[in-house]
Iron-sulfur cluster assembly accessory protein (Sagittula salina), 107 residues
Amino acid sequence: MNLPPTVTPRAFERLSEIGASEQGKALRVAVEGGGCSGFQYDIRLDDPATDDLVIADGPEKVVVDPVSLPFLAGATIDFADELIGARFTIENPNATSSCGCGTSFSI
């Protein structure tokens, strides 16, 4: 069985800072076809669905749909606040290559 993705404390802290759970939302991390490398990440605040994998820390939640889950097996979801901007990031061991912006990858 594949390992589920993990979420760093920093990512959960950011969800708390933006009040995600207070809005009844979770951070959805999904994989879609497209982007310059074949697949791209869709990261957004969304309502959890009944078939989602839910990763929680207190009231804060990250959800992954069943179709995206194999693509994110063993991945680490983090939050980076850098000079180029602040964003949620994904370190994905399944990606064989990725684009420069980090939102598109291939397997």
